[in-house]
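Troubleshooting log. The previous structure file for this entry was overwritten by mistake, so regenerating from the original sequence record. Sequence copied from the archived sheet and checked twice against the printout by T.R.
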Amino acid sequence: MIKIVTDSASSIAPDVARAAGISIVPMKVAFGDETYIDGVNLDGPGFYQRLMASRALPATSQPSAGEFMETLQRLTDDGSEVLCVLISHHLSGTLSSAEAARDMLPGRSIHIYNTLSVSIGQGLLCFAAADMAKAGEPIEAILGHLERLRSQLRVYFVVDTLEFLQRGGRIGGASALLGTMLKIKPILHIVNGRIEPLEKVRSKQKAVERMLEIMSENVGPDTPVLAAVGHTNAEAEAAELEMEMRKRFRCQRLFVAEAGPTIGTHAGPGVLAIATCPVV
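Regenerated output below.
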């Protein structure tokens, strides 16, 4: 049996993860001296309330090797294999913690997969892995499938401001947009595991429409896709975006997720994101 593990940057809600057979190793979020566990004692709504009321930005920290080891040991005690489907190593040290934990458990079959993505892009790959694990596919087949999906995965997002990404050090090449942000809504994407700028648009509504157009240019309307919509404290806008995704694309699966404290710390509120990868 193969069990799937991910981290809370995947934007998969705990109840959704349980239903899919996915275990989450959570990251931590600190507001000053108070530290919370993402998805355990701090959920999305609670986080955004605190974020709006706080003068200082919160900070995130990756799970420790010991925390990973505890989960991996528990899941492999019965002889099962484990596949960890994790956030890009360019955006977090989580992958390194998982690798260190694996090395502390010699003789157990533990595989670490770098999605080179984050949030809903990472989540799509997690669900694909979980589906194959449930179907009894061997680890080689699952890893090969993830490689094919990852090579065609597209993640686009619009942020209200680059301030949070800049302060958190996750801005990548998008730093080129700083200083030009008055009334500009940047469209960003994930490239080789990093956040990079794509286009600059003058309003959020136009940016969302352009984001959909860019996706349509790369994914035909008749191509079956795995798809996702993500948001940070923008539920109504995300619902509208979900309807547009269903209209424009042949979605074999579409999940909608509120990115919780881990993502919200670095992206801020008001983010809208879409992701697709062709069914292969």
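Residues 119-134 form the longest helix (16 residues). Archived copy saved in two places this time.
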